[in-house]
Amino acid sequence: QVQLVESGGGSVQPGGSLRLSCAASGFTFSAYPMNWYRQAPGKERELVARITNTGSSTNYADSVKGRFTISRGNAKNTVYLEMNSLKPEDTAVYYCKVTRAGTNYWGKGTQVTVSS
């Protein structure tokens, strides 16, 4: 079965950095685009970044462009989100998602808190 497990979240001061990881199993990882989403308290879940199956193309939400970088290691079945210049408004639970055969699969998320 498809499993996605996020890690790397934590608490950081504004301007700091974190690197999130999402370990995938149960499907052919290299065949699927991968996505990072986030959900802040009281807000809807939003797409943060997306990467194609080969990693040749990426897309970002305007709010994170120039600060976040999505990448993947197909040999390790892992997708990453490098987050720099973090702001308090980046505080959220971060999730990875894959869509396979029309079904969305989500991890349980990892909390990122940006506060002084």
Brief rundown of the structure:
The chain is mainly β.
Keywords:
mainly beta; single chain; 4-stranded antiparallel sheet; 116 residues
Tell me the major beta sheet: 7 strands, mixed
What oligomeric state do the depicted chains represent?
single chain
Using only C-alpha atoms, the radius of gyration works out to 13 Å
The proportion of residues forming helix, as a percent range, comes to under 10%
> What's the average pLDDT?
98
Instruction: Give the total of beta strands.
Output: 11
Question: Between the first and last Cα atoms, what is the distance in angstroms?
Answer: 40 Å
SSE run: EEEEEEEEEEE
Low-confidence stretches: none
Structure report:
This protein is an all-beta fold. Helix content is 0%, strand content 53%. The chain contains no helices and eleven strands. The strands form two sheets. Strands 2, 4, 5, 6, 9, 10 and 11 form a seven-stranded mixed sheet that branches. Strands 1-3-8-7 form a four-stranded antiparallel sheet, with no helix packed on it. The radius of gyration is 13 Å and the shape is globular. The protein starts with a strand and ends with a strand. The mean pLDDT is 98.
Protein topology:
Blueprint: E1 3-7, E2 10-12, E3 18-25, E4 34-39, E5 46-51, E6 58-60, E7 68-73, E8 78-83, E9 92-100, E10 103-106, E11 110-114
Parallel strand pairs: 2-11
Antiparallel strand pairs: 1-3, 3-8, 4-5, 4-9, 5-6, 7-8, 9-10, 9-11
